[in-house]
């Protein structure tokens, strides 16, 4: 049977690679709905190639631009419905014929459409960390209630998910969550005093967007992944161990109560976890790079330096305290990273702004969706007030 797929964030790195996977296996998939931010030209190309029924863009004026682009193109075929804003994201997420939604947008904007998709009975291929970091206490119970699968697309969480298959009856001692260490691996705080944006964007193994690359450099990204893993696999922070693995070959592993460690290895390529989520529960042939252990050589593992890279311990603190604090952590980091990318703060200031915001925002123990969104706004406003002084 052909599986029908909707994608939030189709013009970004994950969304674009997902469409490449779908194009490689066109006999197995049909794209029914797509959304993007403001990359209208690329979305128009995707519409010409995949002929979705419905698309959405961020701004209303871009909806008109997209319509004009497609109308003037004799090869575009039938025009899709064109929506915009949050209403458009929710329309893509709930497109009637889609069976699975790949959510690949960046930030908390993915939370509401993911909730609506689950309510509509869609399985979720999840590449948006913020959805579970900030609203895992809403998302996971709702998915269980509606019988929807949450299929992780991040390479680390996909590796854990794969390592758990067939072992559901066995007790997990801990999860081993790997990270490359980013471009500043091995450096101390004194070395990071004057690093710039260009330095932080030089990731050694992965090609990603600017925000997530900065998060990788600060280890904030790994902290977000610890929180996401906690919700996906039902474990506390002290049962999730982060390993610095600079080769990025072992994507993560599970240690069982008898001491056995089962992990998933592969070439550093996001297409593998994307394809696994789209085809789940079966595997399928894949074109591209294959792992050659002879040429890979030694695999090494190190403890993360949590005295220098404070993103990880701050995230674990937010996870342990819970409530709205993971949202505050995430929102403060997003605002701080945007300031760093704009050249308004130094790299190490990211940590200071996160820590001050976590202390400065009122704690809410069991936030609903609106309180989560309020915590996001309050965190951004708090940092802006610091910057104005």
UniProtKB/TrEMBL annotation:
<feature type="binding site">
    <location>
        <position position="216"/>
    </location>
    <ligand>
        <name>1-deoxy-D-xylulose 5-phosphate</name>
    </ligand>
</feature>
<feature type="binding site">
    <location>
        <position position="38"/>
    </location>
    <ligand>
        <name>NADPH</name>
    </ligand>
</feature>
<feature type="binding site">
    <location>
        <position position="203"/>
    </location>
    <ligand>
        <name>1-deoxy-D-xylulose 5-phosphate</name>
    </ligand>
</feature>
<feature type="binding site">
    <location>
        <position position="225"/>
    </location>
    <ligand>
        <name>1-deoxy-D-xylulose 5-phosphate</name>
    </ligand>
</feature>
<feature type="domain" description="1-deoxy-D-xylulose 5-phosphate reductoisomerase N-terminal">
    <location>
        <begin position="5"/>
        <end position="136"/>
    </location>
</feature>
<comment type="function">
    <text>Catalyzes the NADPH-dependent rearrangement and reduction of 1-deoxy-D-xylulose-5-phosphate (DXP) to 2-C-methyl-D-erythritol 4-phosphate (MEP).</text>
</comment>
<protein>
    <recommendedName>
        <fullName>1-deoxy-D-xylulose 5-phosphate reductoisomerase</fullName>
        <ecNumber>1.1.1.267</ecNumber>
    </recommendedName>
</protein>
<comment type="similarity">
    <text>Belongs to the DXR family.</text>
</comment>
<dbReference type="InterPro" id="IPR003821">
    <property type="entry name" value="DXP_reductoisomerase"/>
</dbReference>
<feature type="binding site">
    <location>
        <position position="12"/>
    </location>
    <ligand>
        <name>NADPH</name>
    </ligand>
</feature>
<feature type="binding site">
    <location>
        <position position="222"/>
    </location>
    <ligand>
        <name>1-deoxy-D-xylulose 5-phosphate</name>
    </ligand>
</feature>
<feature type="binding site">
    <location>
        <position position="14"/>
    </location>
    <ligand>
        <name>NADPH</name>
    </ligand>
</feature>
<feature type="binding site">
    <location>
        <position position="129"/>
    </location>
    <ligand>
        <name>1-deoxy-D-xylulose 5-phosphate</name>
    </ligand>
</feature>
<feature type="binding site">
    <location>
        <position position="156"/>
    </location>
    <ligand>
        <name>1-deoxy-D-xylulose 5-phosphate</name>
    </ligand>
</feature>
<feature type="binding site">
    <location>
        <position position="154"/>
    </location>
    <ligand>
        <name>Mn(2+)</name>
    </ligand>
</feature>
<keyword id="KW-0414">Isoprene biosynthesis</keyword>
<feature type="binding site">
    <location>
        <position position="209"/>
    </location>
    <ligand>
        <name>NADPH</name>
    </ligand>
</feature>
<dbReference type="Pfam" id="PF02670">
    <property type="entry name" value="DXP_reductoisom"/>
</dbReference>
<dbReference type="InterPro" id="IPR026877">
    <property type="entry name" value="DXPR_C"/>
</dbReference>
<feature type="binding site">
    <location>
        <position position="221"/>
    </location>
    <ligand>
        <name>1-deoxy-D-xylulose 5-phosphate</name>
    </ligand>
</feature>
<dbReference type="InterPro" id="IPR013644">
    <property type="entry name" value="DXP_reductoisomerase_C"/>
</dbReference>
<keyword id="KW-0464">Manganese</keyword>
<dbReference type="GO" id="GO:0016853">
    <property type="term" value="F:isomerase activity"/>
</dbReference>
<feature type="binding site">
    <location>
        <position position="128"/>
    </location>
    <ligand>
        <name>NADPH</name>
    </ligand>
</feature>
<feature type="binding site">
    <location>
        <position position="156"/>
    </location>
    <ligand>
        <name>Mn(2+)</name>
    </ligand>
</feature>
<feature type="binding site">
    <location>
        <position position="130"/>
    </location>
    <ligand>
        <name>NADPH</name>
    </ligand>
</feature>
<dbReference type="GO" id="GO:0030604">
    <property type="term" value="F:1-deoxy-D-xylulose-5-phosphate reductoisomerase activity"/>
</dbReference>
<feature type="binding site">
    <location>
        <position position="37"/>
    </location>
    <ligand>
        <name>NADPH</name>
    </ligand>
</feature>
<keyword id="KW-0479">Metal-binding</keyword>
<dbReference type="GO" id="GO:0030145">
    <property type="term" value="F:manganese ion binding"/>
</dbReference>
<dbReference type="InterPro" id="IPR013512">
    <property type="entry name" value="DXP_reductoisomerase_N"/>
</dbReference>
<feature type="binding site">
    <location>
        <position position="11"/>
    </location>
    <ligand>
        <name>NADPH</name>
    </ligand>
</feature>
<feature type="binding site">
    <location>
        <position position="225"/>
    </location>
    <ligand>
        <name>Mn(2+)</name>
    </ligand>
</feature>
<feature type="binding site">
    <location>
        <position position="155"/>
    </location>
    <ligand>
        <name>1-deoxy-D-xylulose 5-phosphate</name>
    </ligand>
</feature>
<dbReference type="Pfam" id="PF08436">
    <property type="entry name" value="DXP_redisom_C"/>
</dbReference>
<dbReference type="Pfam" id="PF13288">
    <property type="entry name" value="DXPR_C"/>
</dbReference>
<keyword id="KW-0460">Magnesium</keyword>
<feature type="binding site">
    <location>
        <position position="13"/>
    </location>
    <ligand>
        <name>NADPH</name>
    </ligand>
</feature>
<dbReference type="InterPro" id="IPR036291">
    <property type="entry name" value="NAD(P)-bd_dom_sf"/>
</dbReference>
<feature type="binding site">
    <location>
        <position position="180"/>
    </location>
    <ligand>
        <name>1-deoxy-D-xylulose 5-phosphate</name>
    </ligand>
</feature>
<feature type="binding site">
    <location>
        <position position="39"/>
    </location>
    <ligand>
        <name>NADPH</name>
    </ligand>
</feature>
<dbReference type="GO" id="GO:0070402">
    <property type="term" value="F:NADPH binding"/>
</dbReference>
């Amino acid at each position: 049977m052909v599986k029908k797929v909707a994608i939030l964030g189709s013009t970004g790195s994950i969304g674009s690679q997902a469409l490449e996977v779908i194009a490689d296996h066109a006999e197995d998939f049909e794209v029914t709905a797509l959304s993007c931010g403001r990359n209208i030209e690329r979305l128009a190309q995707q519409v010409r190639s995949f002929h979705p029924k419905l698309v959405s863009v961020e701004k209303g004026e871009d909806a008109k631009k997209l319509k004009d682009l497609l109308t003037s193109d004799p090869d575009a075929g039938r025009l899709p419905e064109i929506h915009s804003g949050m209403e458009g994201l929710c329309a893509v997420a709930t497109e009637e014929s889609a069976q699975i939604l790949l959510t690949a947008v960046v930030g908390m904007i993915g939370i509401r459409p993911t909730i609506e998709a689950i309510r509509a009975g869609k399985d979720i291929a999840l590449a948006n960390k913020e959805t579970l970091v900030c609203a895992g206490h809403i998302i996971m119970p709702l998915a269980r209630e509606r019988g929807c699968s949450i299929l992780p697309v991040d390479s680390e969480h996909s590796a854990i998910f794969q390592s758990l298959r067939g072992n559901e009856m066995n007790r997990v001692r801990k999860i081993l969550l790997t990270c490359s260490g980013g471009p500043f691996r091995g450096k101390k705080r004194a070395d990071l005093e004057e690093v710039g944006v260009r330095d932080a964007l030089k990731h050694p193994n992965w090609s990603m967007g600017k925000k997530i690359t900065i998060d990788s450099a600060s280890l904030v990204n790994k902290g977000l992944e610890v929180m996401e893993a906690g919700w996906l696999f039902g474990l506390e922070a002290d049962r999730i161990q982060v390993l610095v693995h600079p080769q990025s070959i072992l994507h993560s592993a599970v240690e069982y109560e008898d001491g056995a460690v089962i992990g998933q290895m592969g070439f550093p390529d996001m297409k593998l976890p994307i394809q696994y989520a789209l085809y789940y529960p079966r595997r399928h042939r894949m074109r591209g790079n294959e792992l050659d252990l002879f040429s890979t050589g030694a695999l090494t593992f190190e403890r993360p330096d949590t005295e220098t890279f404070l993103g990880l311990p701050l995230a674990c603190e937010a996870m342990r305290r819970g409530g709205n604090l993971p949202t505050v952590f995430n929102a403060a980091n997003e605002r701080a990273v945007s300031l760093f990318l704009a050249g308004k703060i130094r790299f190490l200031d990211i940590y200071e702004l996160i820590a001050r915001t976590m202390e400065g925002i009122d704690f809410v123990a069991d936030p609903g969706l609106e309180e989560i969104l309020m915590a996001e706004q309050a965190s951004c406003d708090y940092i802006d007030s610091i910057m104005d002084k």
